[in-house]
Write a structure and sequence with these properties.
The protein is mainly α. The protein contains four helices and no strands. The protein is elongated and about 60 Å long. It starts with a helix and ends in an 8-residue tail after the last helix.
């Protein structure tokens, strides 16, 4: 996993935690830390989390390295 993918994964996790807080407690952590949803820095954070999610879409379609290394088990033998 590249450094950019790791950063994107961290941002995606932050976004997921924030959405969990919004869903369960109606509390937007990013907005409360950075001065509201309309603050420029909050919008930048939201944008970065969105871009990170798009970057992580590539991980969804990346082949599993473990599956490539292991030979396919043949139950007929």
């Amino acid at each position: 996993m590249s450094t950019i993918q790791r950063i994107a994964l961290v941002l995606t996790i932050i976004g997921a935690i924030n959405w969990g807080l919004i869903g369960f407690f109606q509390f937007d952590l990013v907005a409360s830390i950075f001065g509201g949803q309309n603050a420029a820095i909050s919008r930048i954070i939201y944008g970065l989390v969105g871009i990170a999610g798009l970057i992580n879409l590539g991980l969804l379609f990346k082949p599993n390295e473990q599956m490539e290394r292991e030979p396919e088990a043949n139950p007929a033998r």
